Each structure stands twice: as C-alpha cells, then as structure tokens.
Amino acid sequence: MKIKILAEYITKFGELWDKSLSDLLKEAATEVISKADIKPSEIEAVFVANMGSGILENQLHLGALVSSFFPHHPPAVRVEGACASGGLASVMAQQSLLSGRYKTVLVIGAEKMTDVSTSAATKFLSSAADYTREYGSTFPSLYALLTQAHMQKYGTTRDMLSAVSVKNHRHAMKNIKAQFHRELTINDVNNSEVIANPIRLLDCSPISDGAAAIILTTKQTNSPEIVSYGHASDSLTLADRKSLSSLQATKDAISQCMSNTKIKLNDIQMAEVHDCFSVNEILAIEDLGFFKKGHGGEATLSEQTTYGGKIVINPSGGLKACGHPVGATGVKQLAFISNLIRQDEINVGLTHNVGGSGATVIVHLLSK
Known about the structure:
13 helices, single chain, globular, alpha/beta
C-alpha cells in the first residue's frame, strides 16, 4: 500500500498578530483542500499537530475545532510530541491509512506563539524537558550542553556553528513563506548576544506563528510518495543519555526508515532537518549519516550542505530562518519537500523532526 501526498500548503510564518490560531488552521485546511481539488467531504479523518494551545490559548480540543470547519465533521484527534508534533501526527495518520480504516486524511499543524511575552513562551517551550529533573532549564541551556560536548570532542569551532545560520538565512531568501528574509555573515552570528554559552542569539530558531497541512491518500495518484518513516525515542533528560555529542534517537529513526526501502542515503538530494539551534543541524547531518561523526561542522563551513555541495540541507531556510511554529514545523518539512518533488526539482528528499532535546525523533523519506 502506497501513501501519497495529494496536496500540501504552508501559511506565511512569522509574527502574525492579525491572525488567531483558528484563523491559521482554517487557512491551511481550506487551501490544501483547494489545491488537492477534492471535496471537503472526501476527508475521512483529521490529525492536528500542536504543542502549546492548552498553555498559551487555554484551548486543547483542537481536533474538534478543525473538524468543525467541515460540514460532515470528520473524526479528528490532536497529536502532541513537543517540537516533533508535526512529524508524529503524520505517523499517526499513516498508520490509520495502513490499517485500511481510511483512504484520505488531513494532517495539519499549527502554533500561535507571539501573542505572549518572551518569558511565557520560554516557559511553555521548557515543558518539553523533564520538569522535575531539569527544573529551571531552558532549551538554549540544554542545547548549550550538547554544543559544548560536540566542540570538546570534535573540535567544532564557533565559525562552523555560525555557518549553519548563514546558510539557512541564504536559503530562506528564496522562500516567500519564510519568517526572515535577511542574509547573515559569520561575524553577525559570532557577535550576536550570548544566550547560553556558547549559544548566541543568531544560533536560535525564533518564536513564530504559522500552520502547514498535507493531505495523505492511498488512492492511486502520481503525487509524491512517503516511502518510509522512522520513529524513535530516548530518555527525556540529558542526564540519562550515553552521549551528549550525538542524538541516539536520530540514529535509531534513520535506521528504521532506511531498512524499509531500497533507496540509499546517497540518493537523497535535499533534507529538511531540525535546526532549532545551530548544533542540532550539525548533529543531524552526522547522525543521519550524511557526514562522518565530527565532520558536520566542517562540511557546513565548506559549503557541502548547500547548492553545489554534497546535499542541500534546509532548502526552506530551516527552523532558523523559515521559522518554528512548533506544531507546524514537522508538517511544513513534509509539505516543503513534497512540493520540491512535485515541481520536479528533486526526486528524493528527507525530513527530520525532533522533540525536546532529542527525546522524540521522526524521520520521513519521500520520493516521486
């Protein structure tokens, strides 16, 4: 049974103060159905990805909210997996299709984060860590530990970290939906404000609003195919990890994903990976197997992860420059790669969506 992406849609990402969470969800749902050229009644189930609506909006029943957009009120469920909510919602949707219960479903992710203070948004995001054992920690501080470990073990330099943001901002210049359309230099990132040493402001993905949607179907169509996926978990707290210079869940997820297909890593032309902080892109391209362990930073600095290099990483601009409305991110990654395949720009692409500091990882492989 083949699962195809019948259509995809991404809203503008950014500080969208004139739109509510409901507005963003309705836009994404309406537009993706229009692009699919199907009737709303053909949607048999809905999977809504979101992390923070209960904390930020006092609204947890998002499945019913999105279902109410449809005259036939399809069964719907909200899926939460921290920053991996979007990828996880897609996994749940695929499982429902593979069971044979449904033939066409909607996967939609959204987050509305900019209507609260920075401190409130930071507190909400920290709920993806271990509240008891990592109490008081912010995600910049947790990823600072991972950054320090990678720098100490492999000699990763400040310029290598900065090259991630520079490259992703350059890629975002071509993405009209991206939050930022401003190129950076290595010096810009190196000299930005220290957030949690050695992480600086321009190493960090922003607080964003936005939504994304895909329609998955098992009906016969020439649309891009989700060939395989991997879903893995690790300890919630960093203290229980065997290594801080690698994310084991990424290794496990890519192993699962590639074991179910004849496609090889070298066939993958572009990948959307979870660059919530600069170090996470370096960890991702190493743990996914695109570059040897310890060589991800050097590969980025030498432009092996952009056009003309070995593989294009984060053509959308990634979380750093396209934006990171948490629940929408994993769906956006799938939508962006799917559209590249649909436009014949690539034949094979991959998405990598991370929850917390690596406690949940979803990898998807897409092809013509």
